[in-house]
Amino acid sequence: PAPEVAPIGLPSDSLPSSPLLLSLGPVTLAQPGAQRARFFETQPMTQTSTAPAEFPQETDPRGAFQRQVSRFRQHVTTDGSSGFRAEPGRYHLYVSLACPWAHRTIIVRKLKGLEDVIGLTIVDPLRDHRGWAFSSDDPDPNQGFEFLEQAYLATDPKFEGRVTVPVLWDTQRKVVVNNESSEILRMLNSEFDEWGEGAVDFYPQALREEIDALNDEIYRTVNNGVYRAGFATTQEAYEVAVSALFGALERLEIRLGDRRYLTGPALTEADWRLFTTLIRFDAVYYSHFKCNLRRLIDFPNLWSYTCELYRHPGVAETVDFDHIKRHYFVTHRSINPTGIVPLGPVLEFDAPKRQCGT
């Protein structure tokens, strides 16, 4: 089961007492006199059957999704001490507009002013057993690869596992530098400042401990939590994941009741890491991954926060709901066998800015 994560700045008794009971307690709407209501209550389920796994090698015996560890973990550094010196035009990002992990790197590349420094190629949103593919509309400009797997095998011919995005590619050495989004995010934030917006810092020294703690909780319960719900193959694994997810969303709703962003008045990487999950929530995770205790729009603070980040200059153009919905609903045939893509929901990111303390 997913660990019960101690909330940031909130008492531990606000955590769900029993994941299997799914009695998630009061929902704080952060409004004066708001009615407090339960998500729902149910008796523990006794189902023991196992559904087909979307990724069998990443599913444990109890039916819980266990994400594979990123394989390539080299780093680009300003001084080149890592063997990969930061240089304009040398590195290239392979991304999917559908993927939240890739999306965070797309946003930071844009906001750091690195679009002319680091190239970018978008893979096709539809993925089959061969993995992410390049399309005729956006072919690989470096090696002429047809599939991203070729970049992995060019770097490690013995690679076995799932090919993921984002990928940071070195066009000089012709190898994958890194395929871990959190690490690529940090490189984009600091190692290319000579050619980008050096004054923009999403990982400031004074906030690093708080950012790291937020990232850890949000990754386990929200970013990866929606996947643990969606890719669960047993009722128990699903309920554990959904319980942890909505407990975390409630705590984030409370946290954003008195502050503009997760750490206060300044945007940090923690916000962008959370945003790329939230922006997909009502369109995909609510229905496709069965994260349906509440919609994101039912959390007033989280919804307004998501709308504000969406309206941040340059961010809306990185969000592509066509790619997002086609990827999830067509690619995951174990979850959606028909491959039918829903027309809705209609989402309007025009919520008024929250009135908060900081």
Fold and architecture overview:
This protein is mainly α and 358 residues long. It is built from nine helices and four strands; from the N terminus they run βαβαββααααααα. A hairpin with a 4-residue loop joins strand 3 and strand 4.
Average pLDDT works out at: 87
Instruction: From the alpha carbons, calculate the radius of gyration and give it in angstroms.
Output: 20 Å
Helix/strand order, N-terminal first:
EHEHEEHHHHHHH
Which stretches are poorly predicted, pLDDT < 50 over at least 5 residues?
1-44
- Structural class by sheet pairing and helices: mainly alpha
Terminal CA distance reads: 36 Å
How many helical elements? 9
Instruction: Give the helix level as a range of percent.
Output: 25-40%
Give the spatial strand order of the biggest sheet: 2-1-3-4
- The number of E-state strands comes to 4
Largest sheet: 4 strands, mixed
Shape: globular
Strand percent estimate: under 5%
Secondary structure blueprint with pairings:
Blueprint: E1 91-95, H1 100-111, E2 119-122, H2 149-155, E3 167-170, E4 175-178, H3 181-190, H4 208-223, H5 225-230, H6 235-255, H7 269-285, H8 300-310, H9 321-331
Parallel strand pairs: 1-2
Antiparallel strand pairs: 1-3, 3-4
Give the key terms:
358 residues, mainly alpha, 4-stranded mixed beta sheet, 4 strands, 31% helix
Can I get a quick summary?
The chain is mainly α and 358 residues long. Helices cover 31% and strands 5% of the residues.
